[in-house]
Specification:
With 253 residues, the chain is of the alpha+beta class. Helices cover 53% and strands 14% of the residues. The chain has a 7-stranded mixed beta sheet, sandwiched between helices.
Length: 253
């Protein structure tokens, strides 16, 4: 029987098609999640390491097969340890599925003009600031560990929070809808930032939160007053007012 006859002999149903589509979708999202990160390089190395078992069995290499069998046994535990950040991020993104968001309570839209006015004043006076704007994924774990504010968002309030000498100056303000829910929040620092780049703690914290959630984080540099923003693990630097507005409109719609 030729290979063509074998293919025709296969019984392929619509369930098989759905099965293939789901598996392809899962694999695609896993690759998209780790693309461009160190996890991609580590995963390639782990695949090569795991494939030694099949190579050893194919060429009848008993010693290598025994060693690689033990490696395959511990490989799932290594995946959990090495990719814990990526796994946590993937599970968090599942919670932001549009179908699940139908069951969540709505919030008032973020006031772009308030954020822009505060950013311009803070930038002009070179006052360092970190503003985390909540989207679909909740930032409750960070706001609960910070100083509760729960006040209507205003440019004056944001400016006063980050005024040097104040107790909340070094932390982040968390905005949910049209309210500032907390200030003085400590955010997770990124571990993937390029060490060659001159990024301070605020930028690393902004990147860290955007890697762990879908939040949009605005950073005002204390050194030069430049405005930056992070979203989905990407840092957008040296933004003017129009660029910041467009970024908020794209990410917070």
């Amino acid at each position: 029987m030729s290979w063509y006859d074998r293919i025709l002999a296969l019984q392929f149903s619509w369930r098989d098609a759905i099965d293939i589509i789901i598996v392809a979708f899962v694999i695609y999202n896993i690759l998209a999640l780790i693309r461009g990160t160190r996890a991609m390089q580590v995963s390639i190395g782990m695949v090569l390491l795991g494939s030694t078992f099949f190579v050893a069995r194919a060429f009848n290499l008993p010693a290598l097969e025994a060693i690689s069998r033990q490696i395959l046994f511990y490989l799932p535990f290594a995946v959990i340890v090495l990719f814990q950040a990526e796994i946590r991020r993937a599970l968090a993104r599942m919670a932001s599925n549009p179908l699940l968001s139908l069951f969540s309570s709505g919030t008032s839209p973020v006031p772009f003009d308030v954020i822009l006015d505060a950013a311009k004043v803070l930038s002009a006076n070179r006052i360092g600031a970190l503003i985390a704007i909540e989207r679909a994924q909740s930032l409750k774990m960070y706001s609960e560990a910070a100083k509760p504010i729960d006040a209507l968002a205003s440019a004056e309030l944001l400016i006063s929070i980050f005024t040097p000498g104040g107790p909340l100056h070094d932390g982040a303000a968390i905005v949910r809808g049209n309210r500032i829910v907390a200030a003085g929040a400590f955010l997770p620092l990124t571990t993937s930032a390029d060490p060659k780049l001159a990024h301070g703690t605020r930028h690393r914290a902004a990147l860290g939160l955007s890697e762990d959630s879908d939040a949009l984080v605005i950073v005002i540099s204390e050194e030069n007053g430049s405005i930056s923003a992070t979203s989905e693990g990407v840092l957008h630097e040296h933004l003017d007012s129009d660029q910041l507005l467009r970024l908020m409109q794209e990410r917070l719609k």
